User: Fold this.
Amino acid sequence: MRSWLIICATICVVYSGSVLPPVFQSWYNLTHPIVEICINETGVDADLVRSLFNKTSIPSEEHLRCLFKCIDDKLGFIRPDGSFNKEVMIAKIARLTPEIAIECLDKYESEPDGCVKSHEGTLCAMKKITLLELN
Assistant:
């Protein structure tokens, strides 16, 4: 299932005007096994997730934000206390540097809504990773 990859690719399109194939492929490889599970768990419209590839912005619909959290939970990116597990994220996410993790994840660490926290943290990180690749 390419849904999570589509989300991340769209993020790259929104912020940089281009999708870099290595970034696109790495996010797909990482999230592909769990996207369908998270679509089912969150109740997000599967067609919405699949259609993101053709859009130029990421909707902020509640279920979509919670899809990000579900994926983060399943990948071990969220600790039991709700905080980001930056070490695991840096180890698993291609091109995520400690600097990007600190900048993006610390910015949203105090967000009380876990869905918003994951959504915004991911958007920020993908923007920074894409910009890093462009430089």
Summary: Residues 5 and 28 are 4 Å apart (CA to CA). The chain has one domain: 3-134. DSSP finds eight helices and no strands in the chain. The longest helix spans residues 114-134.
